[in-house]
Design goal:
single chain; alpha/beta; 12 helices; binds uridine-5'-diphosphate; binds magnesium ion
């Protein structure tokens, strides 16, 4: 096993039902990486695709076995678990993540690496001009702002997956044992010198987004509850505030009844017990749901099940990587 030196760069790409876009990805990714003139490996993680993605990855592995490795999951575990699957196996000392749909142009990888060479251990991409629907952009902006307040994670563009991490950060993420997580945020918690660079963003080359509105809402819940207890604390604060307000109102009403009974009309206009009750019931249900989010996370952790199952790994063993007859230049 101790033959070939590890590559300097690992590129991890999660793939889920991307058959329509994969050929275009291969056609752009490999030339872009070859142009960097440093040793690299590409690790595709097939997240249980039900289309021809796995077959296409297999073909690509046969075409470039020197720099390609493919991890095939046996079911769909989600983009972030797929990235972890790649993290567990990558060998480079700098690791770049990228989407399979060409929304993150592979030609931009050099920019991230330049920032790493400048001494940063975490480089986040920020999409210069985002090519997504308007509601996705508006929702992202709102969630970015909320997340920044609730967690201490600073990310200008949480949705941008074009990011680079040091080997140490990647190892820490892989060792984290979280069942549902969000890699850019998890990695950020381990970063000593994070930075961000602007990168281009393109429209999806082919196929459709794998994220429905529901999945996006789930993701954002994970992002907040996975990294912060502030929502729970806010809830107790809200409870205290409501109690204090009720007490003050109670005192005010008593005073009013004793001394200013002729103001009755004004009070009737302002006071609507039914609406207030519904509001509070809503808040209580929301609070219960919120506690449920945390309990659910704890429950998942208690199961201690494997986070995903790998069906096959396609890789050339290090033995022949050292001296394969037709080994291409790198
Ligand atoms: N993806 C995945 N598993 C999933 C959903 C998505 O591996 O369950 C991959 C997908 O193939 C793509 C990346 O994650 O490479 C981002 O997904 P997508 O482009 O659909 O998300 P969007 O760009 O719309 O946020
Ligand atoms: Mg995409």
């Amino acid at each position: 096993m101790a033959s070939a030196a590890p590559p300097r760069l690992s590129v991890v790409i999660p793939v889920y039902n991307e058959e329509a876009g994969l050929p275009a990805l291969f056609a752009r990714l490999y030339p872009a990486l070859d142009a960097l003139s440093e040793s690299y490996e590409v690790i595709f993680v097939d997240d249980g695709s039900r289309d021809a993605s796995a077959a296409l990855l297999r073909e690509q592995f046969q075409r470039r076995p020197d720099v390609t490795r493919v991890v095939l999951f046996n079911a769909n575990y989600g983009q972030h678990m797929a990235i972890i699957g790649g993290f567990e196996r990558c060998r480079g000392d700098r690791v770049v993540t990228l989407d399979a749909d060409l929304q993150n142009p592979p030609e931009e990888i050099g920019k991230l690496l330049a920032a790493m060479d400048a001494g940063h251990d975490y480089v986040g991409g920020v999409r210069r001009q985002r090519e997504d629907s308007w509601w996705r952009r508006a929702a992202s902006r709102a969630m970015n702002a909320l997340r920044e307040r609730l967690t201490r994670i600073v990310m200008t563009d949480q949705g941008c997956m074009l990011r680079a991490y040091s080997r140490e950060i990647v190892a820490a993420c892989a060792a984290s044992h979280e069942v549902s997580t969000f890699i850019p945020a998890l990695a950020y918690t381990f970063a000593a010198r994070p930075t961000e660079v602007e990168v281009a963003h393109e429209e999806r080359a082919a196929g459709v987004s794998k994220y429905s509105l529901y999945k996006l809402i789930r993701l954002n819940f994970d992002l907040v509850t996975g990294f912060s207890l502030v929502p729970l604390q806010l809830f107790s604060m809200f409870g205290m505030l409501v109690s204090a307000l009720s007490l003050a109102t109670y005192v005010a009403i008593i005073v009013y009844r004793l001394f200013f009974a002729e103001w009755r009309g004004a009070l009737h206009v302002l006071w609507d017990r039914d609406i207030l009750t519904f509001f509070l019931i809503g808040m209580v249900l929301f609070g219960l749901g919120l506690i449920g989010e945390y309990v659910g996370r704890i429950y998942q952790q208690v199961w201690q099940r494997p986070r995903f199952m790998v069906r096959t790994v396609l890789e050339r063993d290090d033995g022949d990587a050292a001296g394969g007859a037709g080994a291409p230049p790198r």
